[in-house]
Amino acid sequence: MKNKFIDKLGLNIHPTVFGLSLLIIISFVTFTLLNLQQMSQIFQTIQSTIAHHAGWFYILSVNIFLGFSIYLIFSRYGKIRIGGMNEKPEFTYWGWFSMLFSAGMGIGLVFYSVAEPIFHYISPPYGAGSSIESAKMAMQFTFFHWGFHAWGIYAIVALALAFFSFNRGLPLTIRSAFYPLLGEKIYGPIGNAIDITAAVATLFGLTTSLGLGVKQINAGLHHLFGIAESTNIQIMLIASITLLATISVVLGLKKGIKRLSELNMGIALVLMIFVFVCGPTIYLLNSFLQNIGMYTSQLIELSFWTEAYESSNWQKSWTIFYWAWWISWSPFVGMFIARISKGRTIREFILSVLLVPTLLTFIWLTVFGNTALYQEMVLGHGIVNAVNENVAVALFVLLQNLPLSFFTSLLGVLLVITFFVSSSDSASLVIDIITAGGNTNPPTIQRIFWAITEGLVAIVLLLGGGLIALQTASIITGLFFAVILLFMCFSLLKGLREELVK
Predict the structure, then answer these.
(1) Which are the contacts of 160, defined by CB distance < 8 A and separation ≥ 6?
(2) What is the per-residue DSSP string for 283-314?
(3) Contact present, 58 and 482 (Cβ < 8 Å)
(4) End-to-end C-alpha distance for the chain, whole angstroms
(5) Who's near 437: CB < 8 A, 6+ residues apart?
(6) Which of 73, 129, 165, 376 has CB 3.0 to 4.6 Å from 172, enough for a Cys bridge?
(7) Other CB atoms within 10 Å distance of the CB of residue 295
(8) Helix crossing, 346-365 with 132-146: angle to 10°?
(9) Structure confidence at residue 2 (pLDDT)
């Protein structure tokens, strides 16, 4: 859609998608700023209401996404190559896996890898807390929240976008995945609505991670240098790191995001190996095997558990939030994975997206989560007290109980910063592509604009209610986008059948 005024400004946008997405975001931000006193309570009420009434829908939807992705691995469609039968992969496996992992988990995994197992240990979904059984359950549920279900969502969205863009020649944007159902109507109001929902979901899903990340950076700086933990400091951190993300944006995909993702992986690997070697190594090896066994043996039961026979809100605070968060992240992560995955067969693509990041995540969670449990249960180092006082400082308290704690804590802060920058940069690229109508190489100024917008929204949500506001934004946008993803599965299947016939 051409517009002379837009062309004169040197922009390349879809006016309707860009304009309405920005209007929704600005309206939300403005309303929050004008009602800061009340917003915390409003966010809490909205989150509780949606989780209570739509929790079953999130659980059913996420199981459908995972089941469909597993079906595609073993189906006749697995041999189809993204981009055509002669297409070659653009990136090496190392570069590809680095970007997969950095985009898909990043900040959240660093934030929750120590805190979540401790939370579940002292307050399990059922049974007595602070026991051996609750420790086992803590790792089982942590694996569940970060495992196959999250990557099943990403795999479906990424595959749909990659297939319809690279095999069918459609724009790399969410609406293209619905061409078998809507035909040319994807270019009309329905397609616009799909892309607007995706852009807004991406932005709010990302700001949740940015909010978590900046809290952890602030906690780390306080732990290391005594810098106060406050909203004002966190606002300054968001502004500073958004500036770094803007620099990465200017460098582009291969020089910016790819190199930063590989740096993320390198820092994460060094930190993880250090904790593994200096921590309870044999205990961690035993724990990893047992954690895998508990997760796989109980996966089906956990997947369909809805808390129907328990009078508790545990699942609404944890599992429902995670499913909504992953769904709201799926346009961002899915489009980013699609963009970097040309040349892979569908079978190779889904197997890699499901297994490799999940395995890396499980190793990371075992090293940090079980070390935290060991320090609490065996050594009595008071990790529980630290988590109860300030969840963001949990990682640094764990590192404090190991050698070279100052340097490893500094490394931990650096890791969160690099994840922060790469997530912001990647999301800026994705939102820009969506609001540019699927143009994969829009003007850099537009990505800079979205990087700054993401930082501003994260700041406003912190002011308007902290973590509750961030979680609520994810749950609201995740609910709308879950419906879109269900139709996307049907549309993708229809498109793959047509491809084989062709």
Answers:
(1) 177, 334, 488, 491, 492, 495
(2) HHHHHHHHHHHHHHHTHHHHHT---TTS---H
(3) yes
(4) 30
(5) 1, 13, 14, 17, 171, 173
(6) 165
(7) 19
(8) 150
(9) 47
Residue 186 · residue 14 · CB < 8 Å: no
Question: Which tokens is 118 given?
Answer: 């401790």
Residue-wise DSSP of 393-439: GHHHHHHHTSTTHHHHHHHHHHHHHHHHHHHHHHHHHHHHHHHTTS-
Residue labelled with tokens 């229809």: 494
pLDDT of residue 295 exceeding 90, the answer is yes
d(CA 263, CA 269): 10
Residue 6, H or E segment: helix 4-8
Query: What does the alpha-carbon distance between residue 112 and residue 102 come to, in Å, rounded to a whole number?
Result: 15
Please write the tens of the pLDDT for every residue from 357-408.
899 899 999 999 999 999 999 988 878 888 888 888 888 999 999 999 899 9
Whole-number Å distance between alpha carbons of 379 and 401: 10
**Cβ-based neighbours of 234, under 8 Å, separated by 6 or more:** 214, 215, 218, 462
Yes or no: say if 250 and 448 are a contact pair by the CB < 8 Å rule: yes
Enumerate the β-bridge partners of residue 345.
Answer: 81
Asked which of 291-295, 349-353, 419-423 is least confident by mean pLDDT, the reply is 419-423
Which residues, in sequence order, are CB contacts of 262 under 8 Å at separation 6+? 94, 95, 98
> Alpha-carbon distance 314 to 323, whole Å?
14
Max Cα–Cα distance, the chain, nearest Å: 69
Picking from 305, 251, 306, the residue whose alpha carbon sits closest to that of residue 422 is 251
Q: What are phi and psi for residue 402, nearest 5 degrees?
A: -120, 165
List the one residue out of 33, 176, 131, 96 whose CA is nearest residue 357. Answer: 96
User: The whole model's pTM is what?
Assistant: 0.89
How many C-alpha atoms does 325 have within 13 Å on its Cβ side?
A: 27
d(CA 283, CA 260): 33
Take residue 186 and report the two structure tokens written for it: 């994807």
Site of tokens 């079978």 = 347
Contact indicator for 384, 118 with CB cutoff of 8 Å: yes
Question: Do 165 and 177 touch, CB atoms closer than 8 A?
Answer: no
How many whole angstroms separate alpha carbon 449 and alpha carbon 426?
A: 13
Counting beta carbons within 10 angstroms of the beta carbon of residue 236, is it exposed (0 to 12), middle (13 to 18) or buried (19 or more)? Answer: middle
d(CA 318, CA 457): 23
Mean pLDDT score, 467-480: 74
**Mean pLDDT over residues 91-100, rounded?**
74
